[in-house]
Amino acid sequence: MNWPLVSVLVPCFNHDLYIEECLLSILQQDYDNFELIVVNDGSTDLSAQKIEALRQVHGFQFYQQENMGVSAALNNALGHARGEFIITHDSDDVMLAGRIRRQVSYMQEHPEVGLLGAKVIYIDATGKPLKHKPVTDPQVQRWSFDELLADAYAVGAPVAMYRRTAIDKVGGYDPSIKVQDFQMTLRVAEAGYQVDILPDRVTLYRRHATNISKTAYKSQLIYDLKVIEAYKDNPAYEAGRLAIINKALKESVVADKKFARALFASVPVHRWNRLTWKRFRHFVFKYRKPKGAQ
């Protein structure tokens, strides 16, 4: 089998605690034909220094920019990328051995696939494995555009491999939408490419206090709603809007009840689904513990 060039893009913002482990996990892959491109998105911690120290040893590409968001950082990296396939790896996650080879093999066998995802193993900030659901379906899943929209499903950066022609066809990332995965998932699917999900676990996904889902759920809500605005005439639009609101409610029902109340009010009750009602129960009965409480 021919093993084409793969470009691994790593945008980084303030992940000095994790960036070394992240980059080393990529550099230690058993796939020889890849290039690593790292973009420091205006970090204010020691990320740039740690990346540069590794670059001097391993010789990968390293670029710096003012803080413009992950979508702009990925566009910057794409401008330097030469690979037939593109991986967009988060700078706080760990790539498991064999990941690139496994995904390239599948993409080579399925030329109709423009975006390939997989599963993850969750770890905490220290790298300790967290509980995760066993893989109950060992089959590859194929998602249609309507299904992706209705579920507001994004193939996340920790597992995504794109065909470069698919990214080019949709014009890269919209830098005004600073949450990257959802916009690219929908745009690639709308462009006619297949979106498949492998049952394999290919990445250690780190959950910590600065995950965007925990710290920036309000801005993520805004960006996700902006993404689906282009598909307002699609029958799956309302389901997708509700799925996005349910995501924002996951944190806000405890962290910001006033905000959560407004989100509940934005959807007629007859359109609530089982997950919305679950969020509502948490809104009524769950409260964040005061700092210092045991």
UniProtKB/TrEMBL annotation:
Signal peptide (residue range): none
UniProt GO MF annotations: transferase activity
Annotated keywords: Cell inner membrane, Cell membrane, Membrane, Transferase
Presence of the UniProt keyword Membrane in the record: yes
Domain Glycosyltransferase 2-like per the UniProt entry, residue ranges: 7-138
Top-level lineage group: Bacteria
Record bears the keyword Transferase: yes
Any Pfam family matching the protein: Glycos_transf_2
UniProt name for this protein: Alpha-1,6-rhamnosyltransferase
Provenance organism: Pseudomonas abietaniphila
Biological classification of the source: Bacteria, Pseudomonadati, Pseudomonadota, Gammaproteobacteria, Pseudomonadales
